[in-house]
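Action item from last week, closing it out:
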Amino acid sequence: MPNAKLIKALEKKGFLLEFPNYDSNEEIIIDILKENNPRINLSLPLFLKEEFNYEKIVSKLSKERKEELDKIILISYKIYNEKNIANNLKELISKNKIKTPFSKSEFEEYYNSFKESQLKESDKEQKIIEKQSKLRLNLDLNKSLKVLFSPAKIRIMNKIFNHEKLTNSELKYYYRAISNINKAVLNPALTDYSRIIEISKKESF
């Protein structure tokens, strides 16, 4: 398998490699722990808030990795409580008598990593919302343009909007067939007039 550095470089160039997906949350948690990498372990609180089978995970781990999991479960439980995130860890901790100690610095490291991941996820969601809003606006705009303008006129207007140079014939066509419509649309009196008609039309039927 290509290393992470190469995969990232390929993705930046738009070359995406296909990898198999995980079938369960348990598989992800097990693989993270088996990496035995403190940096990667910081991601576990992102997965422990979801449903998972503790017994199934523990059965696949060494004693050392189980102790690491137990510690991170307790850290995650404290993080979720401070962030008011719903979870099922309290019952799991009590049932399995999990008491692995952790230091204040360990908690702060996991807590800060969790907050950073949440912020990135929030930014990602916001960008998706903005993209969807932009698409909706473009659809509404295109729909309105088609009511007022022919495809040829829309094509020329799009060229102007995108700062593309018009040919002499396109420029003449713009001033002859498009400019006057634009000026009419921009007239505030026309906007008010149209609004009154839309409000009053029900009374006319």
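Closing note: The chain has two domains: 4-123, 149-205.
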